[in-house]
Please model this.
Amino acid sequence: MKKTLALALAVVMSLGLLAGCGGNNGNSSNPPAASNPPAASNPPAASNPAASIPDAPAGGGTVGVCIYKFDDAFMTTYRNSLQEILESKGYKVTVVDGNNDQAKQNEQINTFITQKVDALIINPVMTSAADQIIDTVKNAGIPTVLINREPTAEQMSAYDKLVYVGCNAAQSGTFQGELILETENQGDINGDGVISYIMIQGDPENIDAQLRTEYSVKALTDAGKEVKQLNLTRGDWDRNRGQEIAANDLAQFGDQIEVIFCNNDDMAIGALQAIQTAGRKVNEDIYLVGVDALDAALTEVKNGNMTGTVLNDAMGQATAAVEEMEKLLGGTTYASGEQSVYVDYVKVTPENVGDFMK
Ligand code: GAL
Model:
């Protein structure tokens, strides 16, 4: 099914329908979620100028891929997809681990530049490093695709051989809220008229974490629901942190917790361990949602141990990233405001989970 989705995506992209305008505020260091502009609620489809240039070279070059850290469940799937696609097209690929250290990643980018790679695909460690990264690749004149951490449109406009491929994080947050609204009691398990939740956040510097945090709850309040946040804790996308945070919160708030929102699946799987240890039962006395559709999460959704998740389409994004890279290699340049390409998220429920399982 994923292959089918990716294929469908590739077709749509080649028609130039998927390019949207960027513009998320990705460079604030640790803002409260609510201060983010709702820029990304649903980026309008815009025509992609790149799509008009069909004669990109078919492989054969060298590509440097920088990943923020290898020890991240979703980015592992993503980088494996990238490598697979690039190698199948005949590119010589080197993928490096930034170890969550921006200084280290800067060195890796410089090394790739010294080695004269034909193109770079970069998953920045820090959104706040975007200016510096863009400056470096621009000075070297290397076509570059940024992935997973979106800079602002203004930052990207500094370099016309640069494009961002990712998803609209607000959409994944909205889908998480909708998953709760689709339950039989709409998240209000104890019937007191208030949805009481805890939020387990990713890295708060990351726009995905900020927008998922904001929009998951906004979906509830937009539906007229009253909500109460019992706690919000950063879990840095990490399974063990998800487990620890959920265990602490379950000990502190007990049955008051009706919903656990996790900014990603790895933390949700950790939270599930804590839920089970506390003797609670998902979908009976507590709801649990994540994002990514990791294989392990799909299994838990199928078994009723997670309320739902949201497909963060690694294969689709990797396909789009390579396609954009090839357009850049073919000489395409990008106009300011047209440098973000978005792949859709998909809501995953017990009803459709089978479609996403391999
Ligand atoms: C998100 C993803 C997380 C984590 C993060 C890294 O899109 O949902 O699981 O991989 O990217 O920046």
